[in-house]
Structure formats: C-alpha cells, structure tokens
Amino acid sequence: MKKKINWSARAGAYMGLVWILPVTIGVCWWIGDRADQHFGTDYLALIGLMIGFAAGLYETIRQANRIENGP
After folding, report:
1. Is a pLDDT exceeding 90 seen at residue 61?
2. Backbone dihedral angles phi then psi of residue 43, each to the nearest 5 degrees
3. Element of type H or E holding 4
4. Contact between residue 5 and residue 68 where contact means Cβ atoms under 8 Å apart
5. Closest CA to 27 of 41, 6, 48
6. Which end of the chain offers a freer environment for a tag, N or C, measured as fewer CB atoms within 10 Å?
C-alpha cells in the first residue's frame, strides 16, 4: 500500500532536489581538476564535468520519481 505524502513534505523534498545537480557537477569537476593538476593533463576536468552532469541528472530524476510514487 502506498503511503500518501502531504503537500508540505513533498514541497520540501522538491526544494532539496535543487542542490543535487549543482553539487554533483561541482564535486566531479573539482575531482577532475585535481587529477588534471596531478597528472599534468587538461581534459580530466571536462570529463569530470560530464560525469557529474550525468550522475546528477540521474539522481534528480530518481529522487523525483521516488517523491511522486512513494518509497
């Protein structure tokens, strides 16, 4: 049986979604930038940026589906 979530809890959960994408992109870019500095390359930050975007988008969609459909 699905548990009904009230509107204020759902609104709060959606407000939290705002942070998932930028934080994921920022962390993955930072890791790529540090790897660039360590290895002397100039493309790992871009790869980190793309991985962060894909991971953040996936997690945002997954969480939105969980909010709408329940646990």
Report:
1. yes
2. -120, -10
3. none
4. no
5. 48
6. N
Q: How far apart are CA 61 and CA 59, in angstroms?
A: 5
Model pLDDT for residues 4-55, shown as the tens digit of each residue: 778 888 888 899 999 999 999 999 999 999 999 999 999 999 999 999 999 9
What does pTM read for this prediction? 0.85
Distance CA 71, CA 65 (A): 9
Q: Is 4 left (phi over 0), alpha (psi -120 to 50) or beta?
A: beta
Cβ neighbours for 46, distance < 8 A, ≥ 6 positions apart? 32
Residue 55: alpha-carbon gap to chain centroid? 6
Whether 1 shows a pLDDT value over 60: the answer reads: no
